[in-house]
């Protein structure tokens, strides 16, 4: 690597070359400070005009904010400097000059709306708090992978170009594939089941999913990151255990490893790992409790899907993460198994954050005949899914799994207002670029 | 989790329930053995017909191969059993009966062609050697991520639906995005550069890329996994160091953690981590050495791209991984920087395995004016890429990076013949399903 010291590693007595962006220049007359920023933090560069070479001073103080500079010099202790040290420069190089008219202020002093921020992500990501979100996102994904491996899962990758959607032809983006019609996959569901039926048994995948939903809300994306699990010889209760473990792994890792980032986000004091087991409410209990809150204009009846307002009312009532189990079969997809004791009730479950749904899962239908029946009951042609259904004739074990919204996990963990804040380059109905 | 013991964990004296597939039934008359297989291995179940309940014997020996069974009983030492232990069953449950006519033999005794294997991946993945490939693939990706973090990189995810391709309109799959034309991204190139220009500085991504190339060879896929790196304040030599570190991390992890899998693939004796530094040959040296091998009908001249036969001849000559550096500028894309001392020479490099190219990288053009020139020289309209180019006006640091083919890494590490063996569900011109 090039001869460069990160600002966070500069110690008094060192002779260093630090490289980064001009965060700010404070000119006090005879003395001036250039604040240089890199990925690890900021450092003060001191210019004593009368004692330094004119060229050096002119170069150092003449460049526009956000220009990239390399400064070589000695590090000295300076209690009044923000980090307790400063660099006395011997050489300053303007590596990449910035236009003085910035479309967005990375110092964060001038607010920008989300759209301007997304149009200028490079500049936006020079802000400590925005950088912190994506450092935390990476740490969450690392911790999630590690926890899945503790659950004896193997990471897989399934195709994103597919001949048929998971749940039929709705809400799919069509693609032209060498003259054939194909789609971008809305879920790895069918593929992960095919692998759970093999010797690999337990799998997870973290990858993109694509949904052509016309929703335009602060919690929907048209391209999102799905965190998927599927395990042979698991039932829905096992899958709930795994889902709970994965969500907790995210919080635990952030608490353990992201202190500086939480600080940058102003969350250092309030951040907390969810305590205790997530309660498991049946769908029936859930609608009763929602009705009891009196928040809805109309009472829910058995068979209704839960409206957003209902989820929020229940979330406020429960006050933490919780599961909703035993959903009516008819509002869950064909691949979810029904309970043996009551075919009106499915093994499907959702894991809810008080603000929104995070996870949807269940035990899967592994019996070939019942699976074919399920397709037909939902108006789908089983022949179109033969590549999937035929494997159920050759010893498909009972299995269960779930899909967890990656951006929703980041968003709820950090209390972000809009899911777009948890994606570098979000895709929605209005936004296709950058 | 359900009350279940993995076969590999069954110890003499234990009372267990093992669950898995019927791998084989050996009926020797008065005594018969059922070999049960799960993700961790195989275990022998002993049926002594005269001493056991008829129902138990009939159930255990009556089901077809690949049926899923659960067997409860006691584990006993038995030196003649393949794993040194066997289970004396007290209860046998047929969990999921298999059709006796299998489209593919998971015991591996009957060979199947690749197409049949891919059509029946669930059964194919019940073979030890095939399972081993995907366990190793997962371990390689884990090790690669870990090494990137040691290089101070942050994992990112960039969009797969894009308004413009990285290198213009060729070889892109078109998609209809809410009535607008869009494409599936062929590389995270432009997006990772936009993030390298922010405080995040060093990034990696492991994700799908999509290329509508008409190639149909044993080393091309139309949907592949790209392992991408981009680092601010790095030059091409730094990027080569990272690429070499990542490839070695893959080999080291396989050697350290995948002994059983290498055994299943018959590679336990021959597998070796590449030794020493990968040599760095200039493009000029490379064509000279290829010409000297006499393997090509026509001599290469400066400016030619290297034909596959040339790569193979040079690979055999070098005998291990190597870099090719200093490529002619005109055969490298617009975002690769040229050398200051000779604008005909680029900073682009390839990392080669003796069998094929693995990595393509270089220092990037970070100077706004030169970047715009580069677009124009390659016949691309810079206005279409304004979301990208405009960020180069606001302090874009020098940066370098690379893209590494994930499947090619797995394929060359394990000496697989066909890249499709390294993907669960490959996509090529003929294959869109499963």
TrEMBL record, chains A, B:
Principal location listed in the UniProt entry: cytoplasm
One GO biological process term: aspartyl-tRNA aminoacylation
Localization per record: Cytoplasm
First-tier enzyme category under EC: ligase
Residues involved in L-aspartate binding: 167, 211, 360, 364
Stored CDD domains: AsxRS_core
Annotated Gene3D superfamilies: Bira Bifunctional Protein, Domain 2, Nucleic acid-binding proteins
GO cellular component, one term: aminoacyl-tRNA synthetase multienzyme complex
Assembly: Homodimer.
Job of this protein: Aspartyl-tRNA synthetase with relaxed tRNA specificity since it is able to aspartylate not only its cognate tRNA(Asp) but also tRNA(Asn). Reaction proceeds in two steps: L-aspartate is first activated by ATP to form Asp-AMP and then transferred to the acceptor end of tRNA(Asp/Asn).
Protein known as: Aspartate--tRNA(Asp/Asn) ligase
Encoding gene per record: aspS
């Amino acid at each position: 690597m090039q001869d460069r010291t990160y600002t966070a590693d500069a110690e008094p007595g060192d002779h260093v070359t630090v490289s980064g962006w001009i965060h700010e220049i404070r000119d006090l007359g005879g003395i001036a400070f250039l604040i240089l920023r890199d990925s690890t933090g900021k450092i003060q560069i001191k210019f004593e005009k009368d004692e330094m070479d004119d060229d050096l001073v002119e170069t150092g103080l003449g460049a526009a904010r956000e220009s990239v500079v390399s400064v070589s010099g000695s590090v000295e202790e300076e209690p009044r400097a923000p980090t307790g040290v400063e660099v006395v420069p011997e050489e300053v190089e303007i590596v990449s000059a910035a236009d003085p008219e910035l479309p967005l202020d990375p110092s964060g002093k001038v607010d920008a709306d989300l759209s301007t921020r997304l149009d200028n992500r490079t500049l936006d990501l020079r802000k400590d708090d925005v950088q912190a979100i994506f450092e935390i996102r990476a740490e969450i994904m690392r911790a999630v992978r590690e926890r899945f491996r503790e659950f004896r899962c193997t990471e897989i990758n399934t195709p994103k170009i597919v001949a048929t959607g998971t749940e039929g032809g709705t809400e799919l983006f069509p693609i032209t594939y060498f003259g054939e019609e194909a789609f971008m996959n809305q879920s790895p569901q069918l593929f992960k089941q095919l692998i759970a039926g093999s010797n690999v048994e337990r799998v997870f995948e973290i990858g993109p999913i694509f949904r052509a939903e016309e929703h335009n809300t602060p919690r929907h994306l048209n391209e999102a990151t799905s965190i998927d699990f599927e395990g042979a010889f698991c039932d829905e209760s096992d899958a709930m255990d795994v889902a709970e473990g994965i969500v907790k792994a995210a919080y635990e890792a952030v608490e353990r490893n992201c202190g500086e980032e939480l600080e940058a986000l102003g969350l250092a004091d309030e951040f907390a790992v969810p305590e205790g087991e997530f309660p498991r409410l049946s769908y029936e209990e859930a609608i009763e409790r929602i009705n009891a809150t009196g928040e809805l204009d109309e009472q829910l009846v058995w068979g209704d899907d839960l409206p957003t307002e209902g989820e929020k009312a229940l979330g406020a009532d429960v006050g933490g993460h919780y599961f909703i189990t035993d959903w009516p079969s008819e509002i869950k997809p064909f691949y979810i198994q029904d309970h043996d004791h009551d075919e009106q009730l499915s093994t499907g479950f959702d894991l809810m954050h008080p603000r929104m749904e995070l996870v949807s899962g269940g035990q899967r239908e592994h019996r070939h005949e019942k699976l074919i029946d399920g397709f037909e009951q939902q108006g789908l042609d089983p022949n179109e899914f033969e590549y999937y259904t035929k494997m159920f004739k050759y010893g498909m074990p009972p299995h269960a799994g779930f899909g967890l919204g990656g951006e929703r996990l980041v968003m709820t963990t950090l209390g972000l207002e809009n899911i777009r804040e948890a994606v570098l380059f979000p895709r929605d109905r209005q936004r296709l670029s950058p």
